[in-house]
Design brief:
Strand content: 15-25%
Radius of gyration: 21 Å
InterPro entries: ABC_Gly_betaine_transp_sub-bd (IPR007210)
CATH superfamily of the largest domain: Periplasmic binding protein-like II
Distance between the termini: 43 Å
Pfam family, one: OpuAC
CATH topology of the largest domain: D-Maltodextrin-Binding Protein, domain 2
CATH architecture of the largest domain: 3-Layer(aba) Sandwich
Number of helices: 16
Order of helices and strands: HEHEHEHEEHHEHEHEHEHEHHHHHH
Number of strands: 10
GO molecular function: transmembrane transporter activity
Helix content: 40-55%
Structural class: alpha/beta
Protein name: Glycine betaine-binding protein OpuAC
């Protein structure tokens, strides 16, 4: 909260705030490798170009690599959906030093992450709602006595670190579970979808808002530990930590992060980012549409802007909104 207030002081106190935009440069936006982030990146790109006359290029990224690049090199200029809790102290300091700004929050309802099992398994065996129950009934997740898979995040995602550390802290290997690293977000999603459609066992990490958790009834497993935010920052989210303790996931810190250079060059965009956001229901609807139509971030951007005008027009002033509307007509 303190760093967010400092961001606002910087923005509102700047002599460039809300003034005329300087000539645009070759700015970049992080197109992260999961659906919600890619969708938001394409929305931001379209609105910056057609609403503010500022073209920007999309560059591929993931949480760890993009976060480090942003801190060390000040690039990319805009990261629309950055899960920062693993690096929150470094980012907070960069905000205090006026290198970066927390420009907004993409999810107005927040988000949730943790270890999940299907609701149908909990109905059959209620003890699976807790981690002690999962360990007690580990055989339900196994086939012919083989190690039961625990589905973890892809490498390069912060949740790969946290889920692996918690897997160790919970001693799940001793309970005959095996940590399975998903090759991609799509593979992680597919593992859950296939299990659910066949009413088979599934145990692993996931987060919301996502199309899958919007579509399937899942139960967040209670670690019976409560939430220790300091422990999560100290160890759970750190790759080099070896003495991690059990804690539930705290509410994720998810920010839209921009460089102060970008904010100074295009000050009107800061007001846009501060207003721009989706509720869980809105984002889940978009993500479900992407899944049903096998659509990428660009297609989802076009679908959203064409069909949800009342949402995005609230983020823009009149001239910018009219410019975006005109550009959408040209897409047809």
């Amino acid at each position: 909260m303190k760093t967010f207030i400092l961001s606002l002081i910087f923005i509102l106190g700047s002599p460039l705030s809300w003034g005329s935009d300087r000539e645009c440069e070759n700015f970049t936006i992080a197109d992260m490798n999961w659906n919600s982030a890619s969708f938001i990146a394409h929305v931001d790109q379209f609105i910056l170009e057609h609403g503010f006359g500022c073209p920007a290029s999309l560059v591929p990224g993931n949480t760890q690599a993009t976060g480090k690049e942003l801190l060390n090199e000040g690039k990319p200029d805009v990261v629309p959906e950055l899960w920062i809790h693993a690096m929150s102290e470094a980012f907070d300091q960069a905000v205090v030093n006026n290198q970066l700004l927390y420009a907004g929050e993409p999810f107005s309802d927040g988000a949730i992450e943790g270890f999940w099992v299907p609701e149908y398994m909990v109905k059959q065996q209620p003890e699976l709602a807790t981690i002690s129950g999962v360990i007690k009934h580990a055989a339900l997740f196994s086939s012919n006595g083989a190690k039961a898979p625990f589905y973890g995040c892809p490498e390069g995602w912060n949740c790969h670190i946290s889920s692996k550390n918690l897997f160790k802290a919970l001693k799940l290997e001793d309970a005959n579970f095996e940590f399975v690293t998903a090759a991609s977000g799509a593979e992680l999603m597919s593992s859950l979808q296939q299990a659910y459609e066949k009413q088979q066992p599934w145990f692993g990490y996931y987060w919301s808002p996502t199309a899958v958790l919007g579509q399937y009834k899942m139960r967040l497993v209670d670690f019976e530990s409560g939430i220790d935010k300091q422990e999560f920052k100290r160890c759970t989210s750190q790759p080099e930590c070896t003495d991690t303790k059990v804690t539930m996931y705290p509410s994720p810190e998810i920010k839209t992060v921009i460089t102060t250079h970008f904010a100074r060059t295009l000050p009107r965009s800061v007001k846009y980012f501060a207003r721009r956001g989706w509720s869980d229901a809105q984002m889940n609807e978009i993500l479900a549409w992407m899944e049903e139509n096998q659509a990428d971030g660009e297609a989802a951007m076009e679908y959203f802007l064409k069909n949800h005008g009342p949402i995005w027009r609230r983020w823009l002033d009149g001239p910018a909104a009219r410019s975006v509307k005109k550009a959408l007509k040209d897409l047809q």
